[in-house]
């Protein structure tokens, strides 16, 4: 047996150990970045950030043609807008701070929900050719009601 025989397995074991240590310490160098990302995620999910996100969404919705144009004319193109505003009421209710704001947000969100129900029952959100033709005398006022409720919801957040 040569003198190098037993050294070969030991050398491989030593090099394998070094590789394992290098792999473990490589992960440690990313810990500060991960903790920064975690801190950012915590800030982004804070009630203040959630409230700001809701206010931003409501501001964008308020500028949409479905919120600003004559409801009797524009309602046939507003199905997606109506769905998005309806979905935002859940986040709005969750983001409201304090009893006064919660009360105002809840009332406005309930108005949004009622308007969405009227638009749905009236067939106002169906694509052309699917189901009976919608009635502008039903759909126009229902969308006007949603426009008003959206403004009230946005105002409930002080914006």
- The end-to-end distance, rounded to whole angstroms, is 86 Å
Q: Give the class from helix and strand content and strand pairing.
A: mainly alpha
By DSSP (H or I, 4+ residues per run), the number of helices equals 8
C-alpha Rg, in Å?
29 Å
The number of distinct β-strands equals 0
Describe the structure.
The chain is mostly helical. The protein has 2 domains: 1-44; 46-156, no CATH class. It is built from 8 helices and no strands. Helix 3 runs antiparallel to helix 6 and helix 7 (98-121) runs antiparallel to helix 8 (136-156). The longest helix is centred in the C-terminal third of the chain and has 24 residues, at 98-121.
Brief overview, please?
77% of the residues lie in helices and 0% in strands.
SSE inventory with pairings:
Blueprint: H1 7-28, H2 31-44, H3 47-63, H4 65-68, H5 71-74, H6 79-95, H7 98-121, H8 136-156
Provide key terms for this protein:
159 residues; mainly alpha; 2 domains; 8 helices; 77% helix; 0% strand
């Amino acid at each position: 047996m040569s003198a190098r025989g037993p050294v070969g397995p030991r050398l491989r074991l030593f090099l394998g150990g070094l590789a394992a240590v290098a792999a473990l310490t490589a992960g440690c160098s990313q810990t500060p970045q991960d903790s920064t990302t975690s801190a950012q995620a915590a800030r982004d999910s804070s009630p203040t950030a959630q409230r700001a996100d809701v206010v931003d969404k409501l501001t964008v919705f308020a500028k949409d043609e479905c919120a600003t144009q004559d409801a009797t004319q524009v309602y046939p193109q507003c199905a997606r807008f109506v769905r998005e505003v309806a979905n935002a009421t859940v986040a709005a209710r969750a983001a409201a701070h304090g009893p006064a704001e919660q009360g105002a947000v809840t009332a406005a969100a309930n108005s949004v929900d009622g308007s969405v129900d009227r638009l749905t029952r009236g067939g106002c959100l169906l694509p052309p050719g699917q189901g009976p033709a919608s009635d502008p005398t039903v759909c126009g006022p229902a969308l006007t009601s949603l426009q008003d409720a959206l403004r009230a919801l946005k105002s409930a957040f002080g914006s």
